[in-house]
Design goal:
- The chain is α+β, with helices and mostly antiparallel strands.
- Strands 4, 5, 6, 13, 15, 16, 17, 18, 19 and 28 form a 10-stranded mixed β-sheet that branches. Strands 7-3-2-11-21 form a 5-stranded parallel β-sheet. It has a 4-stranded mixed β-sheet with strand order 1-10-9-8.
- Helix 1 crosses helix 2, helix 1 runs parallel beside helix 4 and helix 9 packs antiparallel against helix 10.
- The chain is globular.
Amino acid sequence: MISQPTDIHEVDVAIVGGGPTGSTVASLLRKYNPDLRVIIIEKAKFPREHVGESQLPGISAILDEMGVWDKVEAANFPVKLGGSYTWGKDADAWDFDFYPAEEFVDEPRPAKYEGQRRFTAFQVERDRYDEILLRHAQELGTEVREETMVREVLTEGDTITGLRLDSGEVIRARHYVDGSGHVAVLRKALGVESDAPTHLRNVAFWDYYDNAKWAVEIGIGGTRVQVRSLPYGWIWFIPLGPSRASVGFICPSEYYKESGLSPKELYLKAVGEQKEISALLKDAKSDTGGNVLTTKNWSHLANRLTGPNWWICGEAAGFADPILAAGMTLAHGTAREVAYSILEVERGELDPDWIKTRYDEKGRRNIEQHIRFAEYWYAANGRFTDLQEHCQKIAKESGLRLNPSQAWRWLAQGGFTNQSIDSAGFGAFDIGSSKKLVELFSGKAVKFNVAQFNEFKMNFNGSQEVMEGNLRDGRIYQTQCWRRGETLLPNFGIWKRMIELVQKDGDLKSMIETIQADPRGASVFQYLQTLEAMVTDSWVVGKLNKKKQVMKIEPGQGRQIRTEEDARKAMEHAKGSIKFAAAAE
C-alpha cells in the first residue's frame, strides 16, 4: 500500500485560538508587517458565547492600536466608568471610578478614542466582541480557519515542528502561538506545567437576563458594574446593553461541594439573598430559560511562556481571579507583547534570547502580581463571614499579614514599578487608589511614605543595570533600567524625570516647584506617586529636615474611590446626565 503524502501548509506564524488573544496577536502582526503569513486555527464557529465581559481601560488603548476601536465602539457596548462594591471590613458600599462620573460629559456615540474615552473601558457581549476582533484580523489578511481542531502538536524536543489538523493537514510555521485559553493546546503538549494556588480555586455560576435595570446610567451609555459580597461568595452584575445583563456568582469550589446544592440552586439562592442585585432583576427574565452556566475560575501561572519557536499568552499563560476583572486585560496585554516580540525576532536587530527572556519574565511577573492582588482582596474581605477560615488560610499561605503598612508593602513589591515602563500603577489602580483600598479593607489609615520626609536621595546600592523594552509603533526600544532582586526601576518617562529631580536637588519643595513649572504632561500627584513607589522599593531614601515643610498627601487624592453616598453627592453637580435605579427595599 502506498501512503499518501501529507498535505503541508507553510506560514510564518500559526496561532491556536481565535479569541481576543489570538486576534490581537494576528492584527498587530499584520498591521506592522503585512508580509507575514499568519493563520488562526479556531475549533469553534464564531460567534460563540463566552464568559468574561468586563474590561479595564488598558484594553481600549490596545483596541485603538489594532485599528479596531471604531468597530467595537460602533457595536454600542456600554461604557464602563468603574465599579460599585460591597467589599472590605464593613458593609458600606463604595465606588471606584476610572474617570470621575460627575465629570463625564454626554457625547454622541460612536465616539473616538480621545479625551474622556481614553480613561474608560467597555462591557461587552463576548460573542459579538470576539467576532468583531476575529473578522478584523481576517480583514487585515490573516487566514482564519474556524471549526478546525489541532489533533496533534508535532515536536522534536522543545521545538514545535508542526500542527496536525483534524483533516490530516499539517501546518508548519516559524512561530507558534498558544492563544487557546484554559485548554492550553500547545502548553500542555509541550509539557509546560502551570502552578495554581490551592486557596484560589473558585467556581462561577452565571446567567444572562433581559429587562434588567442599570443601577446607574452615566451620560450616554455609561455605567458601573456591580460587585456585591455575600457571607459565602460574591455576585457580579455587568450591564451588556440597555436592558441586558450578565449576572454571576463566585464562591470557593469547596464551599460549593459542601453546600449539597446544585449549581442552579446555589446560584438562585445567592442572587435572591443580595438585595441590590435582586432589585435590578425584579422585572427581568433569564434569556437562557434558567439554564445556569458554570465554569471553574482557578488562578494559575505557567512555569515558562516561551521556547525555541513558540509563545504562550492569554489564559494559557495564566489567569487571575475575576474579582479584579483582569482576565481580558491579561489576554490583550500578553498578546500585544507576543506580537511585538515576534516582530522583533523577525526583524533580526535585537538579541532573540533577550526578547524571549524579557517577555517571559515580564509576563509572569504581571500575572503573578494580579494573583497576589486577588489573594489580598479575598483575605481582607470581612464580609465573607462564612468563609473566615478560608480567608485566614489565604492570608497564611500567601505570607500576607493584614497590618495596613505590611499589607501595602507586600502588595507593592515587584508590582507598581514593574507593570509599566511609563508610570507607577497596576492594572486600573494607581498608588493612591491602592492605598485607599488597604484603608477600606483594614479599617485603618494608610499614609504615604513620602509624607514623612522632605529630602530625598537615590539609592542604587546592590542594583545592576539592565535593558527593558519600551513598546511603541511595532518596535521594542531598549531602555536602560536598574534591577535589584525582584524590583525594577525604569529610566524612562515619569520615572526618569523623577530620578533626575532627586539627583539634581532632592529637596521636596524645590522638586514640586520644578514640576509645576514644567509638568511634561503629568500632575504633581502623579510625580509624588512615582516617588512613593521609589521609596517603597528603596530606590529612594527619605530624610526629615525639621526646618523644612512636609507635603500633605492622602490616598484619596488618587483615582476616585469613595463611599456610594459621597459619590451620589458629587454627581448631583454632574456635567452630564445621571440616572439611578430605585433603591432596594
